[in-house]
User: What shape does this take?
Amino acid sequence: MSGRFIRSLVILMCLAVVACGGGGGGNDGGNNGGGGGVNSSSSSSAAPVDSDGDGHPDAQDRFPNDPNEWADSDNDGVGDNSDAFPNDPNETVDTDNDGIGDNTDPTPLGQPIHAWSTFQGNPEHTGKVDITLNTSDFQQRWSKPLQLASLRQGAAGDGYIFFNSAGLIYALDAHTGETVWMQPLGGDYFYNFNQPAYADGMVYVQTGGHSDAYLWAFNAHTGALVFQTPLEDQWSSFYAPTVVDGTVYIGGGYYGGMYALDAKTGAEKWWQTLNQYDQFTPAVTGDYAIAYTGDYSPALTVADRHTGNVLFQISDPDFDWHGWSMNLAPVVAGDYVLANHYGRLTAFNLASKQLTWANISNFRGQPVVNGNHFYINNNGVLESRLIATGELVSSITGSDPFTDDLLITNNLLFVSDSQNTYAYQLDTGERVWTLTGKSGGLLMADGALVIFTAEGVVAIDVEGDIDADGLPDWWEKRFGKNIDPAGDIDGDGLTGAQEFELRTNPLVADTDGDGLSDGEEADGKSSPLKTDTDGVDFPDFTRHLKAS
Assistant: This one.
C-alpha cells in the first residue's frame, strides 16, 4: 500500500472524527475539538424568545410583554382578547353589552330611565321601568324624615322628586334628598290637593273645589308659579295629570268629563263629556286619550287626543256600581286596556273594540305590565296573569299580605307589606332583596327606588356603576355619554366628578344660562343651577359684574 494512500486515509479519518464531535480526552481536546462541536450544535437548536410566557414567540407576538394578548387583528392598539370589536379599528369597548361600540352608541351605558312623569310612571300607567337590575348594586342613598299625610306615589324627573303632603308641594334633590323648594297652597285654593305630574321642566297639580278648582303649573327647578287655570268641578279629587307632547290631560268638569290643556300656558284645548266620576286620570297612547267611567252608561271611552272627538266606546254592561269615584287609571297593555274597579278586573281590546274578559275577585290596586303578563294584588297575594285571557300563571304569597303598590322592571317586581319592601325575581318568583322596616308608595327616579313611608322618604340606589369610574350609571345615562370623571368636556373648569357633585350639566358650560360658567359659580357665592340665587333685586350675572 503506497504512502500517499495511507496519508489520505488518515486525513479522511481525522475529518470524520471532527465532524462527529469527537476529540481527545485531554484538556486541549475537550476545549478545542470537543468544545467546538458542542457549541455548533447549541447554536443551531436555540428556543425562540417568549418574554411574557404566553406561548407566542416575541417575533410573532404584537404584545410581547402582555401574557393575555398577542394579536391585534384591526391594528387599533388593543389586543383581540380585550377588544369587543377585534375587526373594527374604530371600536374597542361595549360598556352596556348591546352590540354597539361606545364610540357609535348614543347611550353607551344603556338607556336612561325615563322620568316617572305621572301616576304609575308613564302615560299608559303600566308601572313598568325598562331596566334590568342587579340586587348587588342596591344600597341606601339617603333617608329624609317627614311626616307625610299621604303615602301615595309622587312624580320625578330632571334630578328631582315631587310629591305633596297636607297642601305642600315638595321638590327633593334625587341625589341628596335635600329639599330644593316647597310650595304651599292655602286658604280657599283647594278642596282636594292631588298628586303631581312632571314634564319638560314643569310640575302640574290639580286641585278640586267648586268655583275654586284649578290646574297649577310650577317651574320644576325653582317652584315659581307659571300658571293657574280655573276648572269646572264639584268638590272632586283626581289622580295625577297625564302629560304628553305639550298637553295636560285630566279628569274634570261640573258634571264629569276629561280636559286637555296646553302644558305651557294652561289654555284649554278641548273638553269631552264623560259619566260623572272622580278619582281617575286618563291614559294616553298613540293618538288615543282613554277614560273608563261607570253609570249611567258604563264604558271605556277612546277619544282623539288632539281634538277630543270620541272615536269609539266599548260598553261594560256588567259594571258594578260602588259610588261615584272610579279609584283607578286605565292601564294600556298593547292592544288591551286593563282596569280594576273594586275587585272586578276587566280587559278591553282596542283593536276589536270589545270587552274581552272580566274577572271578579279581591283584586286591589293597579296592575303592572311586563310583556304579555300583568301582575296584581289579589287579597294580599301577588298574581301573574296573561293579558289576553286573564288566565292565572303563577302567584307569590308573602309572610304577611302585600300592599297595593307595585313597581316592575325587566327582571324584578317590587312590592311592600305593612313593614318591609321586597324585590322578587320575575322568572323564578324568588325573593332576592328585602328592605326591612320601610314600606309605602313606590317610584323610580335617577337610578333610585324611592319609597314614601309613614316616617318620610327613602331612596335606594339600584343601578350601580358599570364602568367603576366613580360616576353612577344613572347620571351618565342622563347625558348619553361615558363621562371621564377627571375630564372637562364642556371647558367650564370643572371635572366630570365635580359636575356630578354640583348637579350641573357636564356637556354645557353654563347650566343655568345666566352668563356665568359653572366653574365661575362653583365658589358658592352663587348657584350654577339658578339665574338669581338669592331671588333679591339682581340676577347672578349682574351681581357678578357689580362685584368685579
Observations:
- The helical segments are 3-19, 27-44, 473-479, 496-502, 540-547.
- DSSP finds five helices and 35 strands in the chain.
- Residues 1-43 have pLDDT under 50 and may be disordered.
- Residues 10 and 120 are 107 Å apart (CA to CA).
